[in-house]
Amino acid sequence: MSANKPIATITASTKIGTGLRPYSATLLALGGIILMILGLYFVFLRPPLLPEDPRFMGTTLEEVQASAPGLQIWLRRVFWVMGGYMFTTGLLTCYVAVTSFRARVRGVPVVVALSGLTSIGLMAMVNFIIASDFKWLLLSFVLPWALALALYWIEGSDS
Predict the structure, then answer these.
(1) Cα atoms in the Cβ-side hemisphere of radius 13 Å centred on 129
(2) 140 within some domain
(3) In this predicted model, what pLDDT tens digit does every residue of 47-106 receive, in sequence order?
(4) Rounded mean pLDDT of 23-44?
(5) How far, in Å, CA of 94 to CA of 116, rounded?
(6) Could you give the CA distance from residue 43 to residue 82 in angstroms, rounded to a whole number?
(7) Which string of b and e fits 131-152 if b means at least 16 CB within 10 Å?
(8) Which of 97, 104, 109, 149 is deepest in the core (most CB within 10 A)?
């Protein structure tokens, strides 16, 4: 076996079989699209501090601005970076959904599960910890990942 030979070749003509298999990949791609949209929101629309942020810190926006005048400018730039990473994670998730996940490459469900847990899953969990106003919305964004993995498992049992 050549050192340069790929483990699995995935092409547009990869046979995906019958049953629910396309639905799991579609749901995972939806999870990726949600991350991309969240990333764009963080880059272009998210204010440096939401009304819930000072409330969580037990202070007011005015007190935060007075004690740390450069904080909002710094946070804006942090959110640009974070949004870029979110967008990229979503883009890569979409790619995995239509290639490796759809082709059922060995190990891909573990990678997808870990990626979902450490991206949107962690974000949802932290938003519950801080009692965010958006915690339930963010938790709903975990559903496409969980459903995609469940359907992936069901599709595998159809074989």
Answers:
(1) 6
(2) yes
(3) 999 999 999 999 999 999 999 999 999 999 999 999 999 999 999 999 999 999 999 999
(4) 97
(5) 12
(6) 8
(7) ebeebeebbebbebbebbbebb
(8) 97
Phi and psi angles of residue 16, each rounded to the nearest 5 degrees, phi first: -110, 0
Which residue is it, tokens 């239509």? 98
Is residue 40 situated within a structural domain?
yes
- Alpha-carbon distances of 140 from 43, 111, 121, rounded to whole Å: 21, 21, 10
In which domain, by residue range, is 89 found? 21-158
Q: How many domains does the chain have?
A: 1
